[in-house]
Amino acid sequence: MSLILEEKKQVKEDIRKVVEAPECIVEGGEVDYCHPFKFGLFYGKFLQGACGSVMWSRSFSYPFFGAYLNLQGHRYQSTRAIWIMFWSLKFVWSAVSDAIPVCGKRRLPYIILGTLISLVAFSAAGAVPYPDPYFKTEVLPDGSCFKNRSAVLNPDAVGSDANVFTLLMSFAIVGVAITDTASDALMVEYSQREPKRLRGKATAWSHIAVWGGGLVIGLVGAISLNGVAYGGDWCFNYFTFGDCCLVLAVLSLLGVLNAGFFTIESGHHTRKSIVKEVKSFYQDIIRQRYFQNVCLFFLLEHTLCGVASSGTVKIKLHHARVSPLVNGIQGAVVHVLGMIGMWLFYKYFIQTSWRKIALCVKPIPIILGLAVDIIVVFDLWRNPYIYMSDDILSAMTSNMLLCMMFVISAEVSEAGHEALTFGTLMTIMSVSHPLSVIIGNFVSSFFDVSNDGRYINDSWDDRLHVVGSAAVCYAINCLSILTVYFMMPEQKDDLARKKEALGISDFGARLFVVVFVALFAWIFVFNALTLFPSTSCLMLVGGQGC
């Protein structure tokens, strides 16, 4: 009996050694993230999340562009798509970061450069003459006020004024993208030094920090931009959108100081030709079938999952009457739950089957979103908190799925090509958003849901058109579940096995390059058409016809 017990004990010890085997991708030992000079990466990510809120935070961009300047639904969606299009150029910054070190460093100089660009752009947005709102705000004898939608104060708001701020924010986002590309590559280098059982820790905490930054600046925008002109409830406004941009300029300055004094990059690298670096990336990575499969999965899943009706903005404005303050509260709750979801994924599910988790969580936001749209549009219960409840209820599960995507991206990244590999996958995720907008705008154009009259008249026929547009878009979202079932890797070992088993495909590599270039070209053309009144009315881009 003692021999049997001793043998069982030895077997358990052997299993423990196998499980706890480091299996690091790169030697050098796990990074001590509590060290003040290594923690700088996460503080920098926090600042990037704050500056990137121009794109992602509803309580920051929507009150100004959607309510103050009164952009039509498809134009507001396309404006955000333009920003994400510039964000999608991360592949270019990745090639530069990998190939051209500055003073032997490949990451820190570009983190500083990108943050300086954002600093200039946000400062300019805060300094240019601030435009008047599209509609006039009327003050009643009792001291209350309202937005008079029959009195246009500034017709240029939807034209030249919107274009100026769109371009300034695009410039700021270019800076954030450069910073994010370099810091992502540094994050991957940290992650590759982690043991297999812990790998994903740097990735998870980096993106928790990003969401923390978005949470803070989202609340600032919600409180600052809650005046009637911004779609809010207050008759006064202590801050304008330009003032909020100056706050972001100050945060960008802090980001420069953080990168210079509290972030350390190890190693000394020599300069390489960008052309040779891209060719090497093509030969070593793009020709690999497993990488082509992961790229196709990212493109299809994010494109199909992101399709939304262009009437969403108008439902929020007219039916749910979501004020910037309510929007900010909702955004804060979503960010907190999202960070909890990412932490739960790393803490308890990092070794669980990614595919099974994704199949469980994918249907939740689709079902909740359609149910809430029906309740609000058909006036069963029109309440801003009800309309925002689907995002809140699905925040935790949605961010678990997002964290999985980031872990897969870090796992696929190869030593020596960290920025290019991770940047290419992030670019594909970003490119998928404008594609989703194109599909959503095209579908919505058949239902005429970008017109304010649809929501002001609010007839039974109008409601059917609005819900019909949303239902078709949610049906397209359901197709993303199929991509998870057939294409998503099971776990790290499954990715490693595919690297060895699938081999290379020159045809797949050439097809990848052609599709990649074609998508970029089409997205630039599409978003250029939405900027000008003479072409933004085309049904192809979501208008009602010219």
Secondary-structure blueprint of this entry?
Elements: H1 2-19, H2 40-51, H3 53-56, H4 58-68, H5 73-87, H6 90-99, H7 108-127, E1 135-139, E2 145-152, H8 160-192, H9 201-224, H10 241-261, H11 274-286, H12 289-306, H13 312-319, H14 324-349, H15 354-361, H16 363-377, H17 384-412, H18 418-445, H19 452-457, H20 460-487, H21 492-501, H22 506-530, H23 533-536
Antiparallel strand pairs: 1-2
Provide structural commentary:
- The chain has 546 residues and is mostly helical.
- Helices cover 71% and strands 2% of the residues.
- The protein has helices spanning 2-19, 40-51, 53-56, 58-68, 73-87, 90-99, 108-127, 160-192, 201-224, 241-261, 274-286, 289-306, 312-319, 324-349, 354-361, 363-377, 384-412, 418-445, 452-457, 460-487, 492-501, 506-530, 533-536; strands at residues 135-139, 145-152.
- Strands 1-2 form a two-stranded antiparallel ribbon.
- Helix 6 (90-99) runs antiparallel to helix 18 (418-445) and helix 14 runs parallel beside helix 17 (384-412).
Quote the distance from N terminus to C terminus: 88 Å
Helix-strand string? HHHHHHHEEHHHHHHHHHHHHHHHH
Major sheet, described briefly? 2 strands, antiparallel
Rough outline? globular
- Low-pLDDT segments: 1-22
Radius of gyration: 24 Å
Summarize model confidence as the mean pLDDT.
78
- The protein's oligomeric status is single chain
The structural class is mainly alpha
Tell me the strand order in the biggest sheet: 1-2
Q: Can you count the beta strands?
A: 2
Q: Number of helical runs?
A: 23
Please bin the fraction of helical residues. Answer: over 70%
> How much of the sequence is in beta strands?
under 5%
